[in-house]
Specification:
alpha+beta; 337 residues; single chain; four-stranded antiparallel β-sheet; globular; disordered N terminus
Length: 337
């Protein structure tokens, strides 16, 4: 329909990097945060209305969160890089950004987090859409790596099917990079990725800034961090899982080293070659934050950690003799990494 075409449009006509959406209480308006353009779109959500974009507000700082006030019909916009909340009247018609800005109220939530100049430049480059230096089709780095994480998709590439890996918190000390382990540094890997996406390339200063931001990204939360107070049974389960992970009988730690990197930095043939793969050996991925990075394997063949643990027996560790309770324990430990 018209709204979906607008949100997914090409050639700069669509909402780039849509990150949040919210309906007002009356079901009249749909607001969409377009992070790639630093904009908020207002769309007519009525069944008999004029589907499509009705108004645009220019909102800086990477808008990524939206909420309506049911009483005042005001929209509140959270911008993650500027740490601000902007409020605006959704019922007003704003044909130009100047008029829209006059009705906005911006509130900073605490002091702005200052980062090194190179990191700030790199963050802007990471979220930049429509830049031919980065890609030929308008994609930004954040298109596949929102917040430095992953889109949960497996893409067809010249090297075969490749699942999008998480970047945040996983780069330091985990060389080489890429599923084939072909690049020894983050910079050479990003340079190669830009070339593969058809980008003309960044100059050295810009590339260094982009790499600086990738290395500076905030770590994502672990599944275990979400537990307010883990019961004693859970702690016991995790401890059992750690012992299993580090035991020679399972062999997990022989490749996923228990040194904080959870990778040996080598390539292995674990019998995972898929159709379209030109090579049999793949880089040992870090297990940092593994619980939030499904699907698993280079081609995304396993949708859950349990499926991975059971399905890879004999080719990547030994789990066939583990009881269901032991598998629970191993999975519980992995969620703490």
């Amino acid at each position: 329909d018209a709204p979906s075409r607008l949100l997914g449009g090409s050639s700069g006509n669509g909402c780039l990097l849509p990150r949040a959406a919210a309906y007002d209480a009356a079901g009249q308006w749909l607001a969409v945060a377009c992070e790639g353009q630093d904009q908020v779109w207002r769309m007519d959500a009525r069944p008999t209305g004029n589907a499509g974009r009705q108004a645009v507000w220019q909102v800086g700082g990477e808008p990524t969160g939206l909420a309506f006030d049911g009483g005042t019909r005001a929209l509140f916009v959270w911008s993650q890089s500027s740490h601000t909340v902007t409020s605006m009247d959704m019922d007003a018609w704003h044909p130009s950004s100047t008029q829209a800005e006059e009705t906005q109220h911006v509130v900073a939530l605490g002091p702005r987090v200052e980062v090194a100049d190179a990191v700030a430049v790199g963050r802007e480059l990471f979220h930049l859409t429509g830049d031919t230096r980065i890609s030929s089709d308008g994609r930004a780095c954040a298109s596949c790596h929102p917040d430095g994480r992953d889109d949960g998709l497996t893409w067809a590439t010249p090297d075969g099917p490749r699942q999008t890996p998480t970047l945040a918190g996983r780069l330091s000390g985990t060389a080489p990079y890429g599923w084939n382990g072909a690049r020894s540094t983050v910079k050479t890997h990003v340079t190669s990725t830009v070339k593969r996406l058809g980008g003309t390339g960044l100059d050295d200063d810009a590339m260094n800034a982009l790499v600086a931001y990738c290395m500076h990204m905030d770590e994502p939360p672990r599944a275990a961090d979400k537990e307010v107070a883990a019961p004693a049974e859970a702690d016991t389960l995790v401890a059992e899982g750690r012992d299993l992970f580090e035991s020679s009988s399972t062999g997990c730690a022989s490749c996923h080293m228990s040194d904080g990197t959870f990778t040996d930095g080598n390539r292995h043939d674990v019998k995972s070659k898929a159709k379209g793969d030109p090579h049999r050996r793949f880089d040992t991925p870090s297990l940092r934050f593994v619980s939030g990075t499904a699907p698993y394997f280079h081609d995304g063949r396993y949708t859950t950690l349990r499926a991975l643990l059971v399905g890879s027996d004999g080719t990547m560790g030994h789990t066939a003799k583990l009881s269901p309770q032991q598998l629970d324990a191993l999975e519980a430990y992995l969620k703490t990494l």
